[in-house]
Amino acid sequence: MSYATELANIKKGQLKPIYLLLGTESYFIEEARATLLEYVIPEEDQDLNVGIYNMDEVPLGAALEDAESLPFFGERRLVIIDNPTFLTGEKPKGNVEHDVSWLETYLQNPSESTILAIFAPYEKLDNRKKVSKLLKKHATLVDVQTMEADASRRFLSQMITNAGYQMDRETVQFFFERIEDSLSTGVHELEKLFLSARDDKMITKKMVEDLVPRNLEQNIFEIVTYVMKKDATRAIGIYRDLLLQKEEPIKINAILLGQFRLLIQVYLLAKQGYQQPDMAKVLKIHPYRIKLANQQIRKMNGDRLMQAYLGLVETEEKMKTGDGIKEVQFELFMLQYAQV
Asked: Where are the domains of the chain?
């Protein structure tokens, strides 16, 4: 059953005894949970008739015992199971033991007065397990998987339109790049943008720049840009900001190394006549990263790229061996590279 259809059914009171919400899209997960709480159990009865059980912390039996209990002063109970690692091939967290056979029995004869919702934040279940097969047979499957980039963009664009706001094409593209097409991040950041643009309903690129933070890799991209321009002041400025955000110097340097490795690969492939789509296939990375790399190397030569890469390799070695203070090794590299 599709996500939108099943949520609509829940709101109409057309409830199923068991739901399996499978997927990793946090926005859908949170919305589905809120919908179940609001429409299944009246707010005044939730303290008595809602049970939420994290399988990382409590045994499965505690949730099933609750599910088999009669509701207190109400028509039904809602039992939510979180993090059911026993449905996957992953190693369970903690030392909690789960009586999976009890769940297998329950699935075939669920309580008439209980709605059991199993939130499985995984891409897939281990279909070799009997309990997984029974779940797919007896539960209503609700897909809460992460959207592909194009679908996420359409969803967010519709959300902007439905809310009565506008973005020009350049701003929309910049917004999607800043959030890396993440639906959950986009929904969260739109709340701030809607508030900022509430007077004229026009969201500008400046608003996106000011209000939507760059993630670590986007900051690294900026550092790479300034390294190649030999702009030590700006490169070091962003680097120090990352240190203030408690990012580890070795981690930052490792990502920088990876980015320069990519730039060198793209540079060499371009010299051999490869086009961007072919580069993406050869390197097995997203085409957008190839596009950005091509933009960065447009005015570069191979020698400068290799000098930067080797300098960062030396910087990493010094960080790992304790040769000097690791927090300042990148700054020393940048000052030296700027003079080459």
From this structure: 3-143, 149-211, 216-338
Architecture of domain 149-211: Orthogonal Bundle (1.10)
Return d(Cα 118, Cα 32) in angstroms, integer.
11
The full 3-state SS of the chain, as one line of letters, equals CCHHHHHHHHHCCCCCCEEEEECCCHHHHHHHHHHHHHHHCCHHHHHHHEEEEECCCCCHHHHHHHHCCCCCCCCCEEEEEECCHHHCCCCCCCCCCCCHHHHHHHHHCCCCCEEEEEEECCCCCCCCCHHHHHHHHHCEEEECCCCCHHHHHHHHHHHHHHCCCECCHHHHHHHHHHHCCCHHHHHHHHHHHHHHCCCCCECCHHHHHHHCCCCHHHHHHHHHHHHHCCCHHHHHHHHHHHHHCCCCHHHHHHHHHHHHHHHHHHHHHHHCCCCHHHHHHHHCCCHHHHHHHHHHHCCCCHHHHHHHHHHHHHHHHHHHHCCCCHHHHHHHHHHHHHCC
Instruction: Check: pTM over 0.90? Answer yes or no.
Output: no
Q: What fold does the segment set 216-338 form as a domain?
A: Zinc Finger, Delta Prime; domain 3 (1.20.272)
Tell me how far apart the terminal alpha carbons of the chain are, to the nearest angstrom: 61
Dist. CA 17–CA 43, nearest whole Å: 20
CATH number attached to the domain at 3-143 = 3.40.50.300
pLDDT per residue as tens, the chain (340 positions): 578 899 999 999 999 999 999 999 999 999 999 999 999 999 999 999 999 999 999 999 999 999 999 998 888 999 999 999 999 988 777 788 899 999 999 999 999 999 999 999 999 999 999 999 999 999 999 999 988 888 999 999 999 999 999 999 999 999 998 898 889 999 999 999 999 999 999 999 999 999 998 888 888 888 988 888 889 999 999 999 899 889 999 999 999 999 999 999 999 999 999 998 899 899 988 787 888 888 888 877 888 889 999 999 999 999 998 888 888 999 999 998 888 6
